C-alpha cells in the first residue's frame, strides 16, 4: 500500500490537517519554532513526507498555522479557567493564572503566538484576528465585572485591561524564560488583587 493511501486510511477526510497541527504543538513542547520542519512534522504525525504539503505550502505556512493553533489553545485555557470560577476577583485571577500557566507549560508555543515574524502586530491573519478579538473580549468582560464589584478602581476599562495584560504577560515571559517560578508568578497575581478586607 502506498504511503499516500496509508495517510488516507489513517485519517478521516478533513482530520489530517488537524492531526498535523496537533503534532506540531507536540513538537513545540520540546523545541522552538525555528527548529520545526515539515519533514519532522510528517515523522511526528506518522504520515508520508509529502502529506504536509497538501495543507501547508511551506515551512513558514506551517509555523503560522501552528501559531494560530497555539493562540486557540491559550484562549481556551483562559476561557475554561474563567468559566470554572464564581466572583469577579476569582474570575480575573483565574484568567491571569491560566495565561501564565500556559506560558510555563508550553513556552515555545506561547512564544510563537507573539512572534512578530508570524503574527505581525496590528496586522493579524484572518485566522488569528478573531481569536485575538475573543481574548480581548474575555479580558474586557472580566475587567468590567471586577470594576462593577469594586475589585478594580473605576478608571477607564480599556487602559485598565491593557495594564493588567501587560503585567500578566510580563510575569508569563519571566516564567517562560525560567527567571521566575510558577508559584512566585501566581503569588504575584494574588498580591496584585488582594481579597477585600472583612468588615470589622
Tell me the layout of helices and strands.
Elements: H1 3-10, H2 16-28, H3 38-45, H4 59-83, H5 88-105, H6 107-113, H7 129-148, H8 157-176, H9 182-192
Helix pairs in contact: 2-3, 2-4, 4-5, 4-6, 4-7, 5-6, 5-7, 5-8, 5-9, 7-8, 8-9
User: What is the overall shape?
Assistant: elongated
By DSSP, the count of extended strands is 0
SS element count, helices: 9
Low-confidence stretches: 1-9
Rg of Cα set: 20 Å
Summarize the structure.
The protein is an all-alpha fold. The protein has helices spanning 3-10, 16-28, 38-45, 59-83, 88-105, 107-113, 129-148, 157-176, 182-192.
Account of the protein in words:
This protein has about 200 residues and is mainly α. Helices cover about 65% and strands about 0% of the residues. α4 (about 60-85) packs across α6 (about 105-115) and α5 crosses α6. The protein is elongated, with a radius of gyration of 20 Å.
Task: Provide keyphrases for this structure.
disordered N terminus, mainly alpha, 200 residues
